[in-house]
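> @MW can you paste both from yesterday?
MW: sure, first one:
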Amino acid sequence: MKRVVITGIGCVTPLGIGSEALWQGICREKSAVRRITRFDTSALRSRIAASIEDFDPFKFMEAKIARRLDRFSQFAVACAGMALQEARLTVDQPDHAGTYVGSALGGIGHAEEEHTHLVQEGLQAVDRLIALSVFTGAGASNVSIAFGLNGPALSNANSCAAGTIAIGEAFRMIQAGQVEVMLAGGAEAPLAPLCFGAFDLIRAMSTRNDAPEQASRPFDRARDGFVMGEGAALFVLEELEHAVKRGGPIYAEILGYGVTSDAYRMTFPRPDGSQVARAIQLALKESRLEPSALDAINAHGSSTPINDKTETLALKIALGPAAREIPISATKAMHGHALGATGAMEVAISLLAMKHSHIPPTLNLENPDPECDLDYVPQKSRSKRLTHILTHSFGFGGSNAALVLRSSPISF
């Protein structure tokens, strides 16, 4: 099996655009959650989100391309360009390079806008290219078109695990020798009235509207739901020999990947945490690591009452006694929950944490839930040399995915 490394990061997040800006945002240890001003929230229970206000697509692509793409695809193409630039990679064998972009909702936010035009003004007022932008595969397709990649252009819509699954499946393709390079990650632009309102209807989001920065509270006793965000992160994944031969910079090696399904309910995790635990165990088994070898964990930490408790239980099952010794942080309190993009954003944060020997904090963890009794890093970051990090994501429908990363590859 081929070995796979990550050589470039591209990210558009509420904390910053580009890997350097993202890391500066993490180090500020401040939440990006604010009151929503993009649309009227007066009829909603939740009125807060982590939005990106400074994204200018014209800085990342030609104007004619930017105008043709919706926000979700703009995010994906911008991130792909940044990742390739960081990796110092010019794709000279396009048949051996592909794309895999996960997204829970794809271009549905744009479709929602165009439906409003349809109702108010008729079909002639609708974007004539809407059929090309609303499907989830548009992100991957647009990245492949923008950079001339003739390998597979794939996508998945596995809810909040979509970005992590995209990275894991791209890893598998390179492992198997099917391609040498993949641009992989997640992109999401869900901050539109119906997309947002759908989650409000099922009471999944926080209603701490008067204190937005304190609303996302992973593993805290007072947590009351997640806070929606938007953004994207894509990575250059390369076969190790390919990266070494060209002298590419290496952030980390992907050691293991595990993916399972709860096969239980659409909105609730399996209460015993068994399939979340199994995804983690599969990733560790492939990595040939004992749980005690992990230096840190980037938790899913959605700040929902049931999920955080189940995640804690799953970590205890998967890691045994080591679960209580490993520092764990949940960064959604800073950047919100961008659904299918969040797992990819958290992979970016994990890579940067290893680079800077710095474990991010879990903001707003002021009064830990007794049922969430592991070493969650509260409020302030910790300095620590990090060689192995576990990062995992879970989504509606019971999708569970885990990745194990190593900061630098062992002997070539």
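MW: second:
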Amino acid sequence: MATDSATQELPRRRTGRFISWVERHSISRIVLIGAFLYLLVSITVSAIEFIFHPAGKYLVLSDKGSAVSSFRDILYFNLTTVLTIGYGDFHPASYGRALSIIEAFVGVGLFSVFVAVITVKALLPPRDAIVFSKYAYYCTEPEKFLIVFVNTTKRNIGNVQISSYFKLGGDWLVKPSSTSPFITRSVQTFYVEPITNERLIAALREGDCLRVGIAGGLGFSNFSTSIQYSADNILVMPNRNKLIEFFEPLWEPDFKDALFKQMFHYQPKQMLTLKSFVEGVRKSGTISD
């Protein structure tokens, strides 16, 4: 009888640690780590061979058969061994042969891992491909939630799907995801969940939140990202006209510009959070502009 292939056993630790490590480190740091490991192996084996030399156990010989006693020459020999080059000017002897075989295996293994890591890094999209504003917004005129995000890469993101889920009164409101052919490099002000003022005021409670997920294609890879906004991080405003007016001309936004950062995390002093807005309406019984 066929059985479900899904496992029911919990793992000892969370998966994806390798990918997470690769995401966190730059290519230059990965290259430095790889070079350090090659040097560490070469220096360790060279130290062993150099220590045995005064005892009369010559582990590295030149092409003329004489013992190699210089640490610099021994290190050179081991570097060419771990890199699997082998020019033939030096060769191992006695127990040095076993060390060289082990060293060559380690070198091949390091090279394979290094190529795999660089390949994964090259195919992975940047972690901050999509950056969200600190705040989501509830617009009282269209009675919809609004999210603000920017594509920080130098290309459009294709085949985009945007999904949103709002937890209201303890229950998740789920709707089909929205599909877009691409996301440009400019800032996006995107309406998601439509919920009436009356429904929010009647049902909002502690723990309710808005979750937004974005998935798309970037180069040769697919990526996804998500964010969650609590009722204290959702601000209430009439509509998105102010944001559209600022962001629409900015095809290539300057992320270092102070005004851009202020507008991206738009929060005028008089703007209420969703929690404060609902509590105020419940006390007064009316919706104020």
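> thanks! The mean pLDDT is 88.
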